[in-house]
UniProtKB/TrEMBL annotation:
Protein name: ElaB/YqjD/DUF883 family membrane-anchored ribosome-binding protein
InterPro entries found in the cross-reference section: DUF4191
Domain of life from the UniProt record: Bacteria
Pfam families on file: DUF4191 (PF13829)
Listed transmembrane segments: 60-79, 85-105
Keyword entries, A-Z: Membrane, Transmembrane, Transmembrane helix
UniProt-annotated stretches for the region Disordered: 238-258
Length: 258
């Protein structure tokens, strides 16, 4: 039986150019319609953050305008006094832009907390705002009543966060703390209960509370403990509840702690 010969059709230069043009057009359209900040320019990211924040913060445009204009007015006054009006106004405008951006980040964080407050698994929102040194695992344990325990690991040690009905969540939190202590090998396990009652940490204060924990672990210790925690998670039953609400990546970038 004769071997069948396969032939490869090579596109001509004109066809290749047309295909490349179509690919560029498709990529441009995808970036234009995408909600992924990775496909957005910096200005579009800022615009998206402003849009989301304004939904929950109606005073935002007036605050941003006032924050921008104040340094401009001060620069104008100083410029008139020292006879360098243009230079002083330009410097004031640059300072105004920086201050307005800082205010947008701050208000965006507050709007994000308002957006997800009261929703099951909202502790995940606070964990997403921790610096990159922290490795967070939302909903490592849960009850049928949707009480959950989140976990984060970083320079401040191993932290477990309970969320839900205080009685049930504290019981679940205590059980998880004992499990984690068995694999932590001497690393203290900090437990926090999220909520607005006494001895609880509000959602909008949770990330700051974790960031302020004393630094007890070096990066190599974090890596070692992360591997042991992965082994602990591997023997867990599959949790049958959805994870909590997550902010868009644009709001993450705007509000993540540094």
């Amino acid at each position: 039986m004769a071997d069948r010969k396969t032939t490869t059709v090579t596109p001509t230069a004109k066809e290749a150019k047309a295909l490349a043009k179509q690919a560029r057009a498709a990529a441009k359209l995808r970036r234009k319609t995408s909600t992924d900040p990775a496909d957005m320019g910096r200005l579009k990211q800022i615009q998206q953050a402003y849009k989301v924040t304004h939904e929950y913060d109606r005073q935002l445009p007036f605050l941003l305008l006032g924050t921008f204009l104040l340094p401009v007015v001060v620069g104008l006054v100083i410029g008139l006094l020292v006879d360098h009006v243009v230079y002083a106004i330009v410097m004031g405008a640059l300072l105004g832009v920086l201050l307005a951006m800082a205010l947008l980040v701050r208000r965006a964080k507050g709007a994000t907390y308002k957006r997800y407050a009261g929703q099951t698994g909202s502790g995940e929102v606070a964990l997403s705002m921790l610096p990159k040194q922290w490795i967070s695992t939302p909903v490592v344990a849960a009850t049928r009543q949707k009480d959950v325990v989140h976990r984060t690991l970083g320079p401040g040690g191993l932290v477990l966060i309970g969320e839900g009905d205080p009685a049930r969540a504290r019981q679940l939190l205590g059980s998880e703390a004992r499990k984690h202590e068995r694999v932590a090998y001497g690393v203290p396990v900090t437990t926090l209960m999220m909520g607005d009652a006494a001895n609880q940490v509000p959602l909008d204060k949770l990330a700051d509370r974790i960031r302020k924990l004393p630094k007890t672990l070096q990066p190599n210790q974090v890596t070692d403990l992360k591997a042991r925690l992965r082994a602990l998670d591997a023997v867990r039953p599959v949790i049958g509840m959805p994870k909590g609400p997550m902010p868009t990546r644009a709001s993450k970038q705007a509000t993540r702690g540094r």
